[in-house]
Amino acid sequence: MNTLSRRELMKRFGAAGLSMGLFGASKEAWSKTAPHIVIVGGGIGGVSAAKYLRILDKNVKITIIEPNLEYVFCPGSNEVLNDFVSIEDLTVNYENIKSRYAVNIVTDLATDIDYAGKRVKTKANGFISYDKLIVAPGPDYKFGDIEGYSKQLAEGDFPHAWKAGPQTMKLREQIHNMPKGGVVAISSPPMPYRCPPAPYERASFVAEWLSHHNPTAKVLILDSKNSFTFRKHYIDYWTKKRGFGTKEAMIEWVPAEKGGRVTQLDAANKTLVTADGERIQADVINIIPAHTAAKFTHDTGLSQGNEWVPIDPMDYRSMVDDDVYVVGDATESSPMVKTGYLASNHSKAVAQSIVNSFAGKPPVQPLYTNNCVALAGEDYGMTITDTFRVQNGKIVKQYGHQSTELDNDALHHIRASLAMNWQRAFRRDIFE
Amino acid sequence: MKKTLLVSLISVSALFGMNSANASGALIPADKFAQDPQIPGKMLGDNCSACHGTLGRFYDESMPPLAGIPRDVFIKLMQDFKNEVRPSIVMNHVAKVFTDKEIERMADYFAAQADRPWKEENVLEGAQ
């Protein structure tokens, strides 16, 4: 194995670290011939790949390259906006992954792939060699699709908060400090983007907080689409709880066909401009930008010039190199939607395929389910049940069901508690 | 413990008399996939982990654990969900996609898992 040399390791981690095992992570020593699996990205896809690989194979070396010391789960992060949960509830670190599963964590940013040399270039740690590489970088955002919006503005006074963390807290603070009777404008993106119901879940939780603390305030959803996931549920909830469709409505939804598509931000005047040229001033502006696969996949050629990374759905192998796999939101997985649930299941197929390839076997026939949840309030949950199979190299949606019942409060409560249970169990399944 | 959880599942669904037949998308019957290459029990069963725990081993969440569940109990439950004999909030829609053989392979997989919580130091012991 020609991964980081022993001397390099000594330099960075000291002899004490080495005596405890590589990076101090493991009590077992790997043989010199143990294959090295390197994972770019320590989110849901990357960490599930590491954990499920370790369950399958005690002997491989596994390294995750991830720039952050902690990961904040996106599922549940809308509930931070009304203090239903805290950001701490959603924040995990890599200790379990290191100690329980003997995974090396390299806190660094992967910047390139040397396919011929089978190594990943990092910002601070030079090259890291791999036998198999799993790329799990998530999406990036197309700020340029909305004139005047930028990454800098998103990190400043116009957070998108579509990756949970500091921007979530910034948006929360803005909403909580809004003047009485103020307006929160949410720009909802075109498909595909991660977690399709989440903009509407966000609007619901913002309205819930405002109903207690700023009851004359409004939430305006300006949509680049004409419909959305769980629309019947959300409209039902907003009608019953937020005066939807009346003059007193706390939530208003403007579909694309009625001029909802935002094309421009006039940051200086806190104003959004729509495709129809209408100018809408708001006290808090939350633009959820259109998505594309992470820059890393474009820079390394994995996306092959496409918006999303083409993969073989049998085992999420890239089309560029047989030893490189790509999972999660960055992939072209249509008709799947982009969810953490599916990302974790892509990774299980990858883990099995990699272990099989070491044994000289083909990948197994996969199954990808997306049995997910969403909330409209602490008292109203929704569930979705999607199943995908692979036939003749294509992803086939076998079934897709969204909960439909409207007039059953007890059931809404049960689904809400199920949703909270799911969020917790899902975090544990990936990081515990 | 498992018995209690199964009972609570039944009572919840009985209480609200839920109709699970109002599907919002067309189902391609499982039999249409019967001639495909077999999906192994592990691949099938690991799709359950986000709710039922890694290898079916979360014992302290409201979705019941599956590790160590007797084969025939699992098959009966899944068939009853699949055939809507046992109404439930989510499981009818989860179960109806599987062939009978797939349910049997999942049953074998979960029956073989160590029946202990995913909590202790050496969680990987007994993992199949």
Automatic annotation (TrEMBL), chain A:
InterPro entries (UniProt xref): FAD/NAD-bd_sf, FAD/NAD-binding_dom, FAD/NAD-linked_Rdtase_dimer_sf, FCSD_central, FlavoCytC_S_DH_flav-bd, FlavoCytC_S_DH_flav-bd_sf, SQRD, TAT_signal
Residues annotated as domain FAD/NAD(P)-binding: 36-151
Domain Sulfide dehydrogenase [flavocytochrome c] flavoprotein chain central residue range list: 168-289
Keywords for this protein: FAD, Flavoprotein
Gene3D superfamilies registered for this protein in UniProt: FAD/NAD(P)-binding domain, Flavocytochrome c sulphide dehydrogenase, flavin-binding domain
Record-linked SUPFAM superfamilies: FAD/NAD(P)-binding domain (SSF51905), FAD/NAD-linked reductases, dimerisation (C-terminal) domain (SSF55424)
A Pfam family the protein falls into: FCSD_central
Flavocytochrome c sulphide dehydrogenase flavin-binding domain segment(s): 365-431
Keyword GTP-binding among record annotations: no
Keyword Transport set for record: no
Protein name: FAD-dependent oxidoreductase
Automatic annotation (TrEMBL), chain B:
UniProt cross-references to InterPro entries, sorted A to Z: Cyt_c-like_dom, Cyt_c-like_dom_sf, Cytochrome_c_Oxidase_Subunit
Superkingdom as given in the UniProt entry: Bacteria
Region forming the signal peptide: 1-23
Keyword Metal-binding: yes
Keyword set, alphabetical order: Electron transport, Heme, Iron, Metal-binding, Signal, Transport
Domain Cytochrome c: 20-114
Gene3D superfamilies for the chain: Cytochrome c-like domain (1.10.760.10)
SUPFAM superfamilies listed in its UniProt record: Cytochrome c
Annotated protein name in UniProt: Cytochrome c domain-containing protein
Species: Thiomicrorhabdus marina
